[in-house]
């Protein structure tokens, strides 16, 4: 069977391969990661079956979404090569989209900061003090890169014959969020036993980021 030209078997094999890679990766770095996460201590015990299931489902969904993106690349007449995976975009549009989503992030966490910190700390007192300049810089650079890559994906969608409308751009943003962002958050948070409320708050933020960036990029392009 195929997903409009891409084998279900290929999607499943890709998900299994990445799942096995994750097992090897965290097998090598588990102690260092847990020590850094727990402030020097290490968590005892292995993952639960439910945590394994969540991580595998997340990688299966990610593999499926990635297959769809690669299919759009091929349909757009672009050879599926590593070189063409990175494309040029109008940098000023990318920058404006990144700034807009960065401002949204400040508003979002301004509203939900106490709830997130309370959930992250198991109901305890929220952490005092704001972010450091380095943390702000990392967040902005991450959103700048995301905006640039999103511009490339939207261009591939357009070259694949799908009109670059606001509706199509927002749908693409939601699919990227479901297929990559939320799956990554759910898997990572499940591995470290983070409360689901934290996943929801952070996931809501990144959904807003992708929607805003998509809207800005399309508005600037049209």
**Assembly form of the protein:** single chain
Q: For the record, give the distance between the C-alpha atoms at the N and C termini, rounded to a whole number.
A: 38 Å
Q: In total, how many beta strands? A: 2
Number of domains: 1
> What count of helical segments does DSSP give?
6
Q: Low-confidence segments, ≥5 residues, pLDDT <50?
A: 80-89
Radius of gyration, in Å, reads 19 Å
Mean pLDDT: 78
Strand content: under 5%
The secondary structure category is: mainly alpha
Overall shape: globular
Compressed to H and E, one letter per element, the order equals EEHHHHHH
Side by side, the strands of the main sheet go 1-2
Helix fraction bin: over 70%
Biggest sheet details: 2 strands, antiparallel
How would you explain this protein's 3D organization?
With about 220 residues, this protein is mainly α. The protein has one domain (about 1-220). It is about 75% helix and about 0% strand. It has six helices and two strands. The chain has helices spanning about 10-35, 50-75, 90-120, 135-160, 165-190, 195-220; strands spanning about 1-5, 5. A two-stranded antiparallel ribbon has the order 1-2. Helix 1 (about 10-35) packs across helix 2 (about 50-75), helix 4 (about 135-160) packs across helix 6 and helix 5 packs antiparallel against helix 6. The longest helix has 30 residues, at about 10-35. The protein is globular and about 50 Å long. Mean pLDDT is about 80; it is low at about 80-90.
């Amino acid at each position: 069977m195929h997903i409009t030209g891409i084998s279900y078997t290929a999607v499943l094999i890709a998900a299994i391969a990445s799942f096995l890679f994750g097992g090897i990766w965290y097998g090598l770095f588990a102690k260092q990661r847990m020590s850094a996460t727990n402030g020097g201590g290490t968590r005892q015990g292995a993952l639960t079956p439910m945590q394994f299931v969540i991580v595998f489902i997340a990688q299966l969904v990610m593999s499926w979404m990635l297959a769809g993106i690669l299919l759009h690349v091929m349909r757009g007449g672009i050879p599926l090569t590593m070189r063409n995976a990175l494309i040029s975009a109008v940098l000023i549009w990318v920058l404006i989209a990144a700034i807009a989503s960065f401002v949204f992030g400040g508003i979002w966490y301004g509203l939900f900061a106490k709830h997130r910190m309370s959930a992250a700390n198991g109901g305890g007192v929220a952490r005092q003090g704001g972010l450091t300049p380095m943390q702000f810089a990392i967040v902005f650079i991450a959103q700048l890169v995301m905006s640039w890559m999103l511009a490339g994906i939207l261009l591939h969608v357009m070259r694949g014959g799908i009109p670059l409308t606001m509706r199509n751009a927002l749908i693409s943003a939601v699919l990227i969020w479901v297929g990559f962002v939320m799956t990554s958050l759910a898997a990572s948070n499940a591995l470290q036993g983070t409360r689901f409320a934290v996943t929801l708050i952070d996931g809501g933020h990144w959904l807003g980021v992708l929607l805003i960036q998509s809207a800005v990029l399309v508005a600037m392009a049209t």
